[in-house]
């Protein structure tokens, strides 16, 4: 069991998907990047992808200025990042769906 909290009730009204391309894809580079991602609490979901880009991050923030600050100060300084591309989430259609059993 787990509690599902409404982000808006916690003041997290902004959501973005950030695509990350790494400079190099070595074991150490991946480990360093993933460790830094795990330590960044505003990243609420992270997936490693096949091909380009290398990762998809779901990031939450209070608002656009807070996201910009996080982007400029934290996301751009994640280890081994070559390129970041972000898109804003307009609406969550499905969230935390149960697995089809």
> Helix/strand/pairing class, anyone?
alpha+beta
What's the pLDDT, averaged over the residues? 95
- How much of the sequence lies in strands comes to 25-35%
- Across the major sheet, the strand order is 2-3-1-4
Order of helices and strands: EHEEHE
Distance between the termini: 17 Å
Task: Please count the helical segments.
Answer: 2
Radius of gyration: 14 Å
Strand segment count: 4
Shape: globular
Give start-end ranges of low-pLDDT stretches. none
Query: Main β-sheet: number of strands, strand sense, barrel status?
Result: 4 strands, antiparallel
What percent of residues adopt helix (DSSP H or I)?
10-25%
Give the oligomeric state of the chains in this entry, treating copies of one chain as homo and distinct chains as hetero: single chain
Explain what the structure shows:
This protein is α+β, with helices and mostly antiparallel strands and 101 residues long. It is 22% helix and 30% strand. The protein has two helices and four strands, in the order βαββαβ. Strands 2-3-1-4 form a four-stranded antiparallel sheet. The mean pLDDT is 95.
Keywords:
101 residues; alpha+beta; 4 strands; 22% helix; globular
Write the layout of secondary structure elements.
Blueprint (H helix, E strand, L loop, with lengths): L13 E9 L4 H12 L4 E6 L6 E7 L2 H10 L7 E8 L13
Antiparallel strand pairs: 1-3, 1-4, 2-3
Short note summarizing the structure:
This protein is of the alpha+beta class. Helix content is 22%, strand content 30%.
